[in-house]
Amino acid sequence: MNNDLKMGKGKIAAQAGHASVSATMKAGEKSPSILDSWLKSGQKKVCLKTNFDDLIDLENKAKSTGIQTVRINDAGKTQIPSGSLTVIAFGPDDEEKLEQLTGHLKLL
């Protein structure tokens, strides 16, 4: 989650929901075997926080290692400006790969 934006709790929950649903749908289209494995193993989701620059760096690292990414940009109807990058979803993927990518981040 982009902690630079200082979103309210409800906004954070909504953005996390958008990210989770979008990542699941994308995995169903692009990586059905990875999605199937994730669905059968409990569908783990972890919400972490960082700043914008670190999010972009993590996105680039994820793409270079084959981890799926999904950007969520806000429509700007409530708390934050239109187009603001609120969150990037990583995965679903192997838990160890995701831990290597995001293990240094703090829980939301």
Summarize the SSE layout with pairings.
Layout: H1 9-30, H2 32-40, E1 48-49, H3 52-64, E2 69-73, E3 85-90, H4 95-102, E4 106-107
Antiparallel strand pairs: 1-4, 2-3
Using brief descriptors, characterize the structure shown.
single chain; 108 residues; alpha+beta; Bit1; two-stranded antiparallel sheet; 48% helix
Plain-language structure description:
The protein is of the alpha+beta class and 108 residues long. The protein has a single domain, classed as Bit1. The protein is built from four helices and four strands; from the N terminus they run H-H-E-H-E-E-H-E. It has helices at residues 9-30, 32-40, 52-64, 95-102; strands at residues 48-49, 69-73, 85-90, 106-107. Helix 1 (9-30) crosses helix 2. The radius of gyration is 13 Å and the shape is globular. The mean pLDDT is 97.
Helix/strand order: HHEHEEHE
Unreliable spans: none
Shape: globular
CATH-wise, what's the superfamily? Answer: Bit1
Q: Describe the strand arrangement of the main beta sheet, using strand numbers.
A: 1-4
Radius of gyration (Å)? 13 Å
Note the main sheet. 2 strands, antiparallel
Task: Bin the helical content.
Answer: 40-55%
Per CATH, the class reads Alpha Beta
Query: Count of helices?
Result: 4
Kindly identify the CATH topology: Bit1
Count the strands? 4
CATH architecture: 3-Layer(aba) Sandwich
Strand content: 5-15%
